[in-house]
Amino acid sequence: MRMTLSEIAQLINGELHGAGDVLISGPAKIEEAGDGEISFISSKKYKHFLDSTRAAALIVDQEYDNLKTPHIRVKDAYVGFLYVLKAYAPEKTHSFEGISPKAHIEKSATIGEDCAIAPLVFVGENCRIGKRCVLHPGVVLSGHVTVGDDCILYPNVSVRENCVIGNRVIIHNGSVIGSDGFGFAPQKDKYIKIPQIGHVVIGDDVELGANVTIDRATMGTTVIEKGVKLDNLVQVAHNCIIGAHTVIAAQSGVAGSTKVGRHVTVAGQVGINGHITVGDNNIIGAKSGVTKSTKNDEILLGMPAVPMMQKKRIDVSLKHLPDTMKKINNLENEIIELRELIEKIHGR
Amino acid sequence: MRMTLSEIAQLINGELHGAGDVLISGPAKIEEAGDGEISFISSKKYKHFLDSTRAAALIVDQEYDNLKTPHIRVKDAYVGFLYVLKAYAPEKTHSFEGISPKAHIEKSATIGEDCAIAPLVFVGENCRIGKRCVLHPGVVLSGHVTVGDDCILYPNVSVRENCVIGNRVIIHNGSVIGSDGFGFAPQKDKYIKIPQIGHVVIGDDVELGANVTIDRATMGTTVIEKGVKLDNLVQVAHNCIIGAHTVIAAQSGVAGSTKVGRHVTVAGQVGINGHITVGDNNIIGAKSGVTKSTKNDEILLGMPAVPMMQKKRIDVSLKHLPDTMKKINNLENEIIELRELIEKIHGR
Amino acid sequence: MRMTLSEIAQLINGELHGAGDVLISGPAKIEEAGDGEISFISSKKYKHFLDSTRAAALIVDQEYDNLKTPHIRVKDAYVGFLYVLKAYAPEKTHSFEGISPKAHIEKSATIGEDCAIAPLVFVGENCRIGKRCVLHPGVVLSGHVTVGDDCILYPNVSVRENCVIGNRVIIHNGSVIGSDGFGFAPQKDKYIKIPQIGHVVIGDDVELGANVTIDRATMGTTVIEKGVKLDNLVQVAHNCIIGAHTVIAAQSGVAGSTKVGRHVTVAGQVGINGHITVGDNNIIGAKSGVTKSTKNDEILLGMPAVPMMQKKRIDVSLKHLPDTMKKINNLENEIIELRELIEKIHGR
């Protein structure tokens, strides 16, 4: 797809400066953009690229003028660029259409209008799939799974029985929804399995990365509320509730029965303990271990997690710790010396 | 399914108090149970729900009496409830039966009685599958795989050639058994692959979570002994031995050639070094890094892991560390001051 | 397969000592080798097995003589043994041949000579697969994927549209190439998805473990350079570049837009921050968190990562920290006492 620069200016409602008939082949990063490509400058950090960029055109904030490169001025260059990115993104990334005769669909399943069900998909009994969903090859929906409208399930996603997925949900390759919770009752010398008869409910506009795992509840429901975004290899245990619009980065995990608040930001490789509550709007730094419940609006770091500023002070102190240990030994010696001196004086 | 309360009392061998003809639709958590649902009180922590619960019936320990809710008294309410949970769990969660003509089964494979092999399953040459196994869609057994009786392999589980799986083994979606060990010999400027010609043997009554990875041995066998339970996204490297009835929580990993003892409890996001031995009955706290071999019955925490009580004392000290650093500076100054004072006195 | 000891001596260009007609059934570890098996002694650590080993034959370095076991002397016993391992490794581990009629291949796809495409494989439109590739069951290539020659894609590997895979690449079960980068623009009370229109390029001789995830670039390319080896469950985020011959152990992750140098060694469960550069030849210890850019040849450990020797000194200090805290309290008291004493003297 190609648009002219003036078409793009119109699309993002911006002010065109320079030749509007330049043909734009696609968006690119400022340091990589070349012939026919459009980029953007939003952060001051990238301003120094203005002179050297080989981009055919730029989207910039309103403060920029006198640029030699043809450009479009908008209120927020970053948002403007997002719309361009969206315009140039392929509308669909699959070639299959309708319901492939090579998919296995149980007769009791219902599939909404305009779905694309690939070859090698399995849809179990009594599944209900909404409109305009795309199920890529290798997707497996066990029985009684409900999927809303406009969902994309990428290759090899599998959803266990009775789970419910909202509208406009995107699940990336290999992710697993509704596997059994990790529950075993110790009994003398072995464990007996606690049946996991609950399920998982995923809200609207959720996006799950690749190879994510979300366990079904022991009883009741593991809940991923609307707008949540989970990155690759994230683990959510049985009976958790992840609050609306919370974002969790790759390889983090939430242990069983924990409630994470809304609008929480969790960085990568974080662990959150079971049976606790994480407040709304928390920010949890990378590799932290949240061991106990938190209030709203906390910013935490470390294992165990403490307020981020405290952790950073601790880290600075830690760097000096080996030297400090020596210093303390010196102090001890000095005190002994002083004591001897005093006793000498005292004895006079 | 529905049972009356007196049927449940009989099932769990308990003492019925109240109307035995109440129809119970299923089990639920004490705080969520409502019309027609049964719950339980075992821990004192939940005792305060006794008055407010809307459960139709309760299972309680023998010490409880004078409850207004119909209830069953048993020696161990938790265990009693487990049996109810089991009774209400669906007997099977799949609709496919027998060997689907849409599965691909190599001619040399043998499949025991009463198995359910779903569409889109691949069973390679010379595989031997026991009785009453359930292979969900997307399961792939490469050649020469042996599976015991009564196993459940959930969707998209794959098992590489020559691996052996015991009886009553449950493997959740997307897990991988027998991928190559991570072995490369450095050679000048690159690595050459060390062929991984061993395999994996999984004992009876093992349960593996979703997206688990267990590598085959370089030579010989990676062993998961009987009764082991691994949570989602756990990694077991080549030539490891995981001892019987050991439990490992999500996102933990064991590096190559390590032997983990029996009845070990490993929390989430733990790393265990390669070529070491972890003693029996160890308990390893979350996010720990076990760097060297341990004795039996150790309780460890931290990276590097140290005895848990020691780690907790260190953590308390760490919180005060920045203040302590200031204190030490003060001490230094005080000593200088004292020395001056003494010298003044001394000089008199 | 079986070879005689003299055939093996010829294969590895070594000096035969003892009966050359011994039939060798396969290689084994020194402590496990038995009847008909060959092992090796390279490290001094294993020398004590020389007397007790039940191996039928040994490969040893040139310094060894007077062994009672038949043996082959070579310059480097370890390398010699690798060749034996290779000779005994099965040439292929799959029974399918050619293009299975049960695979789904889009008409516009091209597949090179001598490929083995299993049943239940999906190859999307305009894919180009080189010669002698093996695609195991459950492999899904979305549209416009390019795969070089001599690649092995194990069961349930999936590759999203437009990704490019080099020659002699091995990808283990369940790994995902080209899932969307984790990019969302905050907008008032929710996030909007940043389209991820880039792709992934994987160089020659790369090996990826099981359930690995590599995200496509937002724009441009996520690059895995030649010879890189990634272990199981490793995460590589959008727009990363992993330098040639870098090795990353299990469960480690690299955040977005980071450039990891060449010949870097990353241990398990490491996290590397986004938008930084890790120098060539770095060694990053297990569970470290690399928070900022590093120079070439650094050896780092800890979270935040610091030079490994510094971290080890800090760890030693930490062990003593609780005692040190007490010591400091004692020092404080001693100083108070000394001050009183001095004042008493001073007051005389």
Structure description:
3 copies of one chain form a homotrimer. Chain A has 3 domains: 3-88, Udp-n-acetylmuramoylalanyl-d-glutamate--2,6- Diaminopimelate Ligase, Chain: A, domain 1 (3-Layer(aba) Sandwich); 157-304, Hexapeptide repeat proteins (UDP N-Acetylglucosamine Acyltransferase, domain 1), CATH 2.160.10.10; 308-348. Chain A is built from 3 helices and 39 strands. In chain A, a hairpin with a 4-residue loop joins strand 38 and strand 39. The termini of chain A are far apart. The mean pLDDT of chain A is 95. Chains in contact: A-B, A-C, B-C.
**What integer value in Å does the Rg of chain A equal?**
28 Å
CATH topology call of the largest domain in chain A: UDP N-Acetylglucosamine Acyltransferase, domain 1
CATH superfamily of the largest domain in chain A: Hexapeptide repeat proteins
Q: Which chains have the largest interface?
A: B-C, 68 and 67 residues
